[in-house]
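Dear Dr. H.,

I hope your travels went smoothly. While you were away I took the liberty of generating a structure for the chain from your last submission, since the lab meeting agenda had it listed for discussion. I wanted you to have the full record in hand beforehand rather than looking at slides cold. The sequence, exactly as received, is reproduced here:
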Amino acid sequence: MTDASQETALHDTRVTRRYFRKFEAITQHLGRVAATMEAEDRLSRDDVDVLARYLVGLTYTFKALGLKYLFAGRTPEASQLRIDRDESGFPVFSELLEMASDAAQAERHLGQGRDPEALKDEMMRVILGDLEIPTKLQFAMSQRLYYEEMAKGQLFWARNDPEAIWRGTEGGRRRFLIHWAVYDSQINLPTIYLMELEDSGKVALPKDDRRWPAAQAHLSAQAIAHLKLVTIARGFDRDFDDLHPKRLRRFHIGPMYSNAFTKQTGPLSEVLAAARAPAGQDWALAWTEEELVSERVEHEKSGWFGTVEREIFALDMFAQQGAVDIGASSVSRSVILPQRAYQVLSERRPPGFSEIRKFVVSPKGRVLSYR
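The corresponding predicted structure, in token form, is as follows:
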């Protein structure tokens, strides 16, 4: 969990609304970034479809949180949004946990409260009859809309359980793309996992009441940012003899950098400060993909007479030569940022950014890719 010293509460209504407007602008560009990656053959159509689902869910989550905190600081009843100001720039993990609890009770709240039309009529009566601003009624409306948004579903939750997509057969084995996602409590970031595997079991994995729940529980429990991909893949390979992970990827969406809301240090923060961009354009978002692939299979003795396959994963060659062990075959880093900030970045050329892919958002919303 996040150190409390890293958290900050947004006390002012205007600040809170500006924060959510910023994320509304950012999240609407993420699907375009994924589409650009597909055009560059860095992602497949299935990859983009899966990522788009989670990114849309993330948009809905921020929309719901924006409604929950719409009147933060304006009425005593309204709580305040807590964000990770030092590291991720995103809401802290506990905000997502509270949303899950609220979602479980959404139908009860909606059944007991007045509907939006009744609230609007009451607000008009207060405005015209009492000549007052109906702040408490406005707050009640925002909470009603918050619960309605959660009742619709399809949000990005603290934990999004594994699902399987059929990918055909190869060599007599079924192939699946397994995907799941979490809002990682250690780094306060949405993290998406994709695993391509072969299934040599007698029953197709999603229909197997013995293996599928166990596989789901295993993958969900291992979805921790500080665990290396090779640790996750090897553990899964050893726990399930007839499931063979061939490729595992992890996408970190964030951190988000903004001089108005975060206190990170480093080149991106300096670039944003120098850009002096107007509100809505003063941000940058990191996007990191880790990839682990199996390079060959070895057979290992099992029992008295049997053998099982074990995957041998390709690890980064530089890690084997004494560099930091990343526990993956490769790591690809990108940054998404508005045009004005990119211009400053290209002029300054800070160390370490030459190999980072830049996705630049034009004022009209078009996304362009630069090395």
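Two observations you may find useful: The mean pLDDT is 89. The longest helix spans residues 13-39.

With kind regards,
E. W.
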